[in-house]
């Protein structure tokens, strides 16, 4: 795989979702994203408007999370959260599906909920977080099929707040299930360039990480890998 630092940066959603994130940290996140030309920043809903203002004159997009991190709130709550994030300037939505409903086999509920968020996003990109560490392979496959049917644009591995994050095996399984053209985002535990490149080689088209700067700088001296 031959990627320049700039090409690798274009895969990255630079992320700050800690509950105690401060304004200064959000400002730093956005400055990093601007300097390194990451694809986006991904922030909690209360910071979407701030991030949008900080990045308004750049090409960096703003993603807001919905139903984060558990996915267990009501569907109406998720839809309202998505609408609020879009009103505040979000270009993309990263939503957590209802893991318990999926595991219970209530696929119609899960599909309807995602469709609601897709509609609320008003043609913006929606990434659906499966929380793969809590699912069997059969459940991951079912979830991928539901997401494709919903009109969302991405399946995403993890919140980074559960028992583990992205794995190569899960990214490969998701890519094989959704096909070559659908978005696959690997997120959770990606902290260095080797891990990032391995996820891309496995089929990821986007990477969620708080270590974007270290990852891009891992392509030392501008060399390609």
Summarize the structure.
The protein has 225 residues and is of the alpha/beta class. The chain has helices at residues 5-9, 23-36, 48-55, 75-87, 99-103, 107-121, 137-150, 168-178, 193-202, 212-217; strands at 12-16, 40-43, 61-66, 92-96, 125-129, 154-156, 183-187, 206-209. The protein starts with a helix and ends in an 8-residue tail after the last helix.
Strand-helix topology:
Layout: H1 5-9, E1 12-16, H2 23-36, E2 40-43, H3 48-55, E3 61-66, H4 75-87, E4 92-96, H5 99-103, H6 107-121, E5 125-129, H7 137-150, E6 154-156, H8 168-178, E7 183-187, H9 193-202, E8 206-209, H10 212-217
Parallel strand pairs: 1-2, 1-8, 2-3, 3-4, 4-5, 5-6, 6-7, 7-8
């Amino acid at each position: 795989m031959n990627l320049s630092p700039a090409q690798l940066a274009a895969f990255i959603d630079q992320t700050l979702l800690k509950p105690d994130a401060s304004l200064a940290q959000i400002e730093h996140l956005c400055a990093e994203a601007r300097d390194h030309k990451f694809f986006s920043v991904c922030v909690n809903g209360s910071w979407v408007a701030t991030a949008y203002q900080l990045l308004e004159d750049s090409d960096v997009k703003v993603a807001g999370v919905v139903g984060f991190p558990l996915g267990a709130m009501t569907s109406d709550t998720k839809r309202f959260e998505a609408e609020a994030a879009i009103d505040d300037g979000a270009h993309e939505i990263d939503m957590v599906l209802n893991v318990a409903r999926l595991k219970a086999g209530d696929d119609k509920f899960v599909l309807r909920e995602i469709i609601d968020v897709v509609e609320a996003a008003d043609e913006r990109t929606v990434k659906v977080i499966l929380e793969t560490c809590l699912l069997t392979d059969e459940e991951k496959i079912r979830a991928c099929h539901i997401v494709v049917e919903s009109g969302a644009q991405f399946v995403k591995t993890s919140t980074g707040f559960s028992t583990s994050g992205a794995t190569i095996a899960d990214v490969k399984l998701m890519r094989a299930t959704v096909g070559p053209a659908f978005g696959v985002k690997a997120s959770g535990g990606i902290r260095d360039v080797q891990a990032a490149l391995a996820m891309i080689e496995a089929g990821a088209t986007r990477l969620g990480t708080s270590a974007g700067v270290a990852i891009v700088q891992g392509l030392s001296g501008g060399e390609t890998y």
